[in-house]
């Protein structure tokens, strides 16, 4: 059976980076509204506004998925570290 090698620090860092990305998606709300007056055509502005509403829904779904994945990845790193500590302690007879 091959040895299991896992960089738990990298797992935790990746999870934290995913959660940071989710935060960036949360902060990127309603940017079209800032430019709707600059478009110069009411129908185009309305179309952009409609697109923004659709994108908001998709962005929220994406954000929630990325945030959840980040949490799971971080927790997996912590869980593997805990397992390793318990195995080492057991091998030492503690």
Task: Describe the model.
By secondary structure, this protein is an all-alpha fold. It has helices at residues 8-27, 31-39, 42-91. Helix 1 (8-27) packs antiparallel against helix 3 (42-91) and helix 2 packs antiparallel against helix 3 (42-91).
Topology:
Layout: H1 8-27, H2 31-39, H3 42-91
Helix pairs in contact: 1-3, 2-3
Rg from alpha-carbon coordinates:
22 Å
Number of strands: 0
Low-confidence stretches: none
Largest β sheet strand count, sense and barrel closure: none
Question: How many structural units, i.e. domains?
Answer: 1
Strand content range: under 5%
Please, what is the oligomeric state? single chain
pLDDT average, as an integer? 86
Overall body shape: rod-shaped
Structural class: mainly alpha
Question: Approximately how much helix is present in the residues?
Answer: over 70%
For the record, give the distance between the C-alpha atoms at the N and C termini, rounded to a whole number: 26 Å
Total of DSSP H or I helical runs spanning 4+ residues: 3
Listing every helix as H and every strand as E from the N terminus to the C terminus, the arrangement reads HHH
Summed up:
The protein is an all-alpha fold and 94 residues long.
Short descriptors:
94 residues; mainly alpha; 3 helices
């Amino acid at each position: 059976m091959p040895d299991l090698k896992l960089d738990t620090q990298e797992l935790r860092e990746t999870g934290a980076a995913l959660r940071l990305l989710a935060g960036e998606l949360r902060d990127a709300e309603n940017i079209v509204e800032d430019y709707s007056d600059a478009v110069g055509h009411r129908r185009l502005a309305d179309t952009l506004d409609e697109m923004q509403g659709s994108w908001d829904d998709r962005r929220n779904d994406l954000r929630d998925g990325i945030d959840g994945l980040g949490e799971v990845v971080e927790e997996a790193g912590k869980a593997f570290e805990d397992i390793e500590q318990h195995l080492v302690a057991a091998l030492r007879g503690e």
